[in-house]
Amino acid sequence: YQRRVRDSYKPNNNQRHQTITTPMNSIVVVVICLGVVYCDYLEQNKVVLLDWTKDKYNNYLFRGNEPKISTSSGDVFAYETLKYYLAQEAANHSVSFPDKFWLIDYKLYYFEDPLEEPDIELEMNFFKTNSTLGEIRLQRIIGDLTPPSIYFQSYVK
User: Fold this and answer.
1) Are 30 and 82 within 8 A, CB to CB?
2) Residue 111: DSSP 8-state
């Protein structure tokens, strides 16, 4: 499963070049964890701004859940909703957020599970079709299934 999913999305040389030389001054990285809750849909309270830079290029690091919404025609990648939630979360920290940016979607998944495949394929297909908006990167992880939000802030740091 892992090999099939990872091998099915290999950026071509133009996409790699575009990633490096993108004309946008801002890069947004969203880390998304799969594996525990299936059929998880994008929720604003789960989009959290973790860190950002203030230099020539603005970079932002967010954590969130699955960026999909359910429509009458099925699940879709919620790009516009995600953009709105990212901007709102940045505003909550008095951080300006760009209108145009390069999105790097880091998909963290726990194990080889066929139930995760539709979500991974949804995001892969979105970025194949919308290659000027960003890219997806898949990373298999092994760790605790407990979200850090249930711990005291001092413990998490």
Assistant:
1) yes
2) S
